[in-house]
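Render this sequence as a predicted structure.
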Amino acid sequence: MDSLDAMAAIDSFAGADGTRLAHRATGSGAPLLCVPGGPADSAYLGDLGGLTAHRTLVIPDLRGTGRSATPRDPATYRCDRLVDDVEALRVHLGLERIDLLGHSAGANIATQYAARHPHRVARLALVTPGTRAVGIDITAADRMALARLRAREPWFPEAFAALEAINAGTGADWEAVAPFRYGRWDEAARRHHAAGRPGTPEALARFGTEGAFTPAATRAALAALDGVPVLLLAGELDPNSPPGAVAEFAGLFPDAAFTVLPGAGHYPWLDDPELFTAAMTAFLGAGAAPAQS
C-alpha cells in the first residue's frame, strides 16, 4: 500500500455490466469525480497538486486497470462503453449531479458522459484533454512544433530523434519521448513516469475501436450544453494535447473557459501545483451540493 492509498478510502461498485470496479476517495470538501487517462492505473493522478485540500477527489480505476476487475466482455473496454461505468459510479455515490474532471484520454469519456447525461453534470473540467471524442485531429506537425520548443534541453536530441521516427512510422521508442510530456524532466518527473502502470494490453487496444467515438453527435450535444460551466486547461508545452487543439475543443461549448498553464506539459499539477490548484479552485468554486439521487 502506498502513502496515497493510506490516506484514501478504497471502495468498489458494480460497473454497468456487473464488473467489480474500484474507486478511491481522498481529500475534503464537495466531491469531484476524476476520470483518469490511459487507460492506466489512476494512481498517477496523485492528489492533483494538492486539490485534495479543497475537494474530495473520487477517482475510479477504469476496468482492466489498478484494482478494478477484468471484464468478461472485452468490448466493454471501448470508450463509449466506459461512459456507462461513470454513470454507475454516480448512482453508487448517490449524487444527483456531479462535478466531473477528465484528464487526457479520460476527457474523451467525460466529454461523452456530458453529451449523454447533461442533466447529471454540474461542472465539467477537461485537463490536457484527448480530442478523439469530438473529432479534432492533432497532426504530427503540431506535435513537432511544440517539441522544438524544448531544443535547449539536454535530453532533446535523443528524444526528438525518437519522436521523428514515431511520426514517420519507423520507430516506437515511447520511453525516449517521455520528457516531452513534462514541463521539467527532473527527478520528480522521472519518478512519476517510472511509477505509471498502464492497463491491460486489451484495455489499451480496445479503447478506441470502431464505434468508440461519434464526433458529429457528440459535438451537437455539447453545443446544446447550456448552463453547465466548462473549463478546458492546456499545458503550454504539451505535444499530446496542444493548446491550439484544446482551444478548438473549447469552442465547441456554448460558454467554456480556456486556460493555458505556462511552462506546463501533460501533467500540469506536477509542473506547477499552485497554479494548477488556483485555476481549478477558481473554476470549481464551492462545488456542487452533494444532493442524494
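Summary. Strands lie at 9-14, 20-27, 31-35, 56-60, 98-103, 121-127, 230-235, 256-261. The CA atoms of residues 136 and 248 lie 8 Å apart.
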